[in-house]
Design a protein that fits this description.
Layout: H1 20-48, H2 63-81, H3 95-105, H4 111-134, H5 139-186, H6 198-205, E1 213-220, E2 236-238, E3 245-249, H7 256-263, E4 268-271, E5 275-276, H8 280-295, E6 304-306, H9 311-317, H10 320-330, H11 339-355, H12 359-366, H13 370-384, H14 391-406
Parallel strand pairs: 4-6
Antiparallel strand pairs: 1-3, 1-4, 1-5, 2-3
Helix pairs in contact: 1-2, 1-4, 3-5, 4-5, 5-6, 10-14, 11-12, 11-13, 11-14, 12-13
Length: 417
Amino acid sequence: MSAARSSAVPARSAWHDVPRPQIRRFTAIAMAEAPGLAEEILREIRREYPQVPVVLDESGEPMALVGIRRAIEAFVRHLEQAENLAGRPTVPPDVFHQFGRGEGLHGRSLDSLQAIYRMGVRLAWRRLADIGQRVQIPPPAMYELVDAGYEYLDGLVDQSVRGYAEAAARQAGERLRLQRRLMELLLTEHHRGDPGDALAERAARIGWPLPGRVAVGVLLRPAREAVAPAVGQGVLLDMEYEQPRMVVPEPDAAGRPELLHRALTGWAGAIGPPVPLAHAAKSLRWAEATVGLMERGLLPAGEVLYCTEHTQALVLLQPEELIDDLALRCLGPLSHCGPTHGRRLAETLLAWLETRGGAPEVAARLGVHPQTVRYRLRQIRELWGDEIDDPDRRFELELVLRAQRLRGELGDPRSRR
């Protein structure tokens, strides 16, 4: 293989050999026939695609006709001004961008628009080929013209794609704005959920059928720039919050939990209990409480929890000040014991309250000798006296001690199994 490098040299255009007067005759005829050709193309488009709407410009002329005519004239003008077909003709601004934007705004795909463009190029080529024969343009030059025409088509499609993408982005942004307003109203405590109120109106604007029941979720981002989870169209999601929120319609519907599980893989957070639509704010409140306990390390982290599966923790750990006050009153007798001994007595008392059994059952639960339990139970009875037999006092003691175990202040016998 030779070490010498050969620089790429552009192939010589066949149009370079066509006399300039002949090119001028070709372009003059093509420019003169451009308006009629544009009308012919539009008639054929409307015959093949009758569903395409006719949009008029400010002067009352069909925008499609204006765009076709300008596209033809720009292509011919490029040929007239260039010595060959090097470089792509300048695509007429705005018009084809607007075509793509219109398709996006009306929820249509670009497939039919691109098919229309290809039809237009074929019809234009037939007319230009006829003109080429009339002025005797050599076949090689006309073949180049075909290639240039389809390259020009790519430029028209690019303009439309940009317009389509712009419309899609604008619609997505508008939908997110409307969805956020809907969620704000839905999650307001004073909302009453009357189907005739602003809630129904806002839901209708984004095509969200009002469900009978919802569950509200609060999410913890796995990373600052995490991509929004693909929770599906029916689930309302607001990523603008530091802790994103979502509203899940009919959370118990078949397949819904599985879909959410897949969509939320890698995320953490909590989903509140299912509630009637009018009480969505209550579900949000429980989800926020659960996330708060997760952040304090009192509930498992790194996954999405369902509040209904952690009811005991939510009930016992939420009213923290009330539980602490109750603990001061109920566990006062333990204040005279040392920390370690006091904790063992508390664990024994809770095991006894939960099992309602004798020393063997409590010992089995705690993993200690029955004689040790008998000793501790005698101490407990000495500390509390007859109060330990009062049902209300036993209930308060169990409530407080369970809360302390959930906080990690007491050992959990279940962890020893």
